[in-house]
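Hi R.,

Quick one: here's the Diguanylate cyclase domain-containing protein sequence you asked about.
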Amino acid sequence: MAHQLRDMHGAARAVAYLMLAAGPYNFVTGVLMKLGDPLGQVIALAVTSFILFTVGLICLRRPQAMPRLFWLLVPLMSAGVITGLNVGTADATMGPQLFYLWPLLYAAMFLNRRMIALTVVQISAGHALTAFQFQESGQALLDWIAITVAMSMTAVVVAGLRERNDRLRGVLETQATSDSLTGAANRRAFDAELDRAVADADDHEPLALIMIDVDHFKTINDTWGHAVGDLALRTVADALRDAAEDRRHMVARLGGDEFAVLLRAAPYAAVRFTELARAHVGATTGLPCGPPSLSIGIAVLPDHATGADELQKVADAALYRAKEGGRGRSMMAHPPQRLPASA
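And here's the predicted structure, written out as tokens:
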């Protein structure tokens, strides 16, 4: 998304802590320590301090009360407030300019590159407005260049570190939720996706659970060795992925030679999937043991079950019947038994 907030909880905490610190700081340094300044200026700073503190409390206690656009515009608004305070206090020294680091770091941590660039531009313009108004032009130019370069480099470094961290986290998440041998999802990822998919399923988009066992897999390992067995498992996983025909699906290896597929499909489409999967496996060449045979059980929500546990139970029962019936075949789950309505 063009304007996506990466971490709502982290962003809310960052804004809250800043505002809760900035409000009292601004009140002490801009109001209590400058009571002799023009009354209008003192009142404006006092009101600003109150608003900052109030916004901080809201962000800390009820961040959901703030509109989403607020979180996206926070660095621009903060940079604007800092510029206004610097101009209002006629302070172009380097110390107050350091407060620009907060909106910059917020943008670099939580927003995209376009918002980061806009924040840097606003900070540069805001400092120029202050420096050229209250400093000698030569010194103002040097300070403006220094602030602009420092903020730009800080943004590049922080954003780069964030993106690298995101890539590393993505790798770790993939490793934690996938099977290293086949690349399919693991049991942990499957259980989570099954619960989510069942909760999202409806009559217009049924959910099929397909349970697969590789027939006589122990014989393949014992006869041809584990390397060939591993190749057979990878072949099956690839065939299951290729057979999905662009439907939303998840292929998972539940353990050993047992696989499961979650597929957005009605019963007929689920059967069609199993036929394609068998065809892909059957077309495999280069396996010393030959293409492995598959036993498959199929269950569809809401035709055969009403919840995740029941769906998995009836799919397992269908798989068991396929194996009992001679293996190398697919079986559909039985419709659930419904009690007759009372008179």
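The longest helix spans residues 137-177.

Cheers,
M.
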